[in-house]
Design brief:
Main location: membrane
Strand order of the largest sheet: 4-1-6-7
Structural class: alpha+beta
Helix content: 10-25%
Subcellular location: Cell membrane
Number of strands: 8
InterPro entries: MmpS (IPR008693), MmpS_C (IPR038468)
Keywords: Cell membrane, Membrane, Transmembrane, Transmembrane helix
CATH topology of the domain at 72-166: Immunoglobulin-like
Protein name: MmpS family membrane protein
Strand content: 25-35%
């Protein structure tokens, strides 16, 4: 552009005292958030805490199982009946604990046995088979103290009787 004197004037620099006319400064970019605290937090929430909770539950359950396996229950097995001579001697089978059993062949009536049951399975089972006597009558009974937990009677030749009792809810030592 030509000025009033015919010379070219340079228009790029403003006259002194005026600010440079440029673009305003852009704000700085936002700081990137670190991702590792989120990963650690997620691991804690979804892996470590449930694992710790399960471990606590398993520990509690193991303690309860151990406590139950050491608890004892005292019971009495009884077999009574009628019959004549050697035919009146029944064969008796009874449980003695978790998976154990005892037998009494040709038992004298009345027959009784005190047993202390231990272990996880607190279940009492008593069976008796009468001898070959048509007039035989046989009764089985499972008791805790004076309380009768189970009682059954059978009659006739080779009468078979069974008594079962779940002892898991009974108080013991």
């Amino acid at each position: 552009m030509k000025g009033s004197r015919g010379f070219m004037t340079y228009q790029g620099v403003p006259a002194p005292g005026y600010p440079n006319q440029g673009y305003p400064m852009q704000p700085p970019p936002p700081r990137k958030r670190k991702i590792w605290p989120w990963i650690v937090g997620a691991l804690l929430i979804f892996i470590v805490l449930p694992f710790a909770a399960c471990a606590a539950l398993v520990g509690t359950a193991a303690h309860e199982v151990d406590k139950e396996s050491k608890r004892t229950v005292d019971i009495t097995y009884e077999v009574t009946g009628s019959g004549e001579g050697t035919y009146a001697k029944p064969s008796v089978t009874y449980s003695t604990g978790d998976t154990g059993s005892g037998t009494a062949s040709s038992a004298e009536l009345p027959w009784s046995k005190n047993v202390t049951l231990t272990g996880l399975l607190k279940f009492a089972n008593l069976t008796a088979t009468a001898a070959d006597d048509d007039a035989a009558s046989i009764t089985c009974r499972i008791k805790q103290g004076d309380k009768v937990l189970a009682e059954n009677t059978a009659t006739g030749s080779l009468a078979f009787v069974t008594c079962n009792a779940d002892l898991s809810n009974l108080t013991g030592k």
